[in-house]
Amino acid sequence: MSDDADATDEDVLDSLFSTIEARQRDLPEGSYTASLFTHEKGENAVLEKLGEESTELILAAKDDDHEELLHESADFVYHLLVLLAMKDLSVDDLRTELEARF
């Protein structure tokens, strides 16, 4: 989470997405995020991670393990944001879609 005590939930997602975009652009060596953008499987690597994380999230929910549910939810959201960046979409695009639903 952000060091800024005034950070909002939106700021956390925006900050994470900005970091993901920077890793996509700069491809720093040793970065897990950068490795997802350069993986030999291409976007399939991220899609596989989303599948894995969604299964782990479902199992944590089924087991009523709140700590693990939060952990796996964070992993899922992270990989979802990586996929959005790969598809030239943004958190704002996601926000717009969600806002249109209510």
From TrEMBL:
It comes from Salinigranum rubrum. The lineage of its organism: Archaea, Methanobacteriati, Methanobacteriota, Stenosarchaea group, Halobacteria. GO terms for molecular function: ATP binding; phosphoribosyl-ATP diphosphatase activity. HAMAP family: HisE. It catalyses: 1-(5-phospho-beta-D-ribosyl)-ATP + H2O = 1-(5-phospho-beta-D-ribosyl)-5'-AMP + diphosphate + H(+). This is Phosphoribosyl-ATP pyrophosphatase. Keywords: Amino-acid biosynthesis, ATP-binding, Cytoplasm, Histidine biosynthesis, Hydrolase, Nucleotide-binding. Its EC number is 3.6.1.31. Pathway: Amino-acid biosynthesis; L-histidine biosynthesis; L-histidine from 5-phospho-alpha-D-ribose 1-diphosphate: step 2/9. It is found in: Cytoplasm. Belongs to the PRA-PH family. One of its GO terms (biological process) is L-histidine biosynthetic process. GO terms for cellular component: cytoplasm. The keyword GTP-binding does not apply.
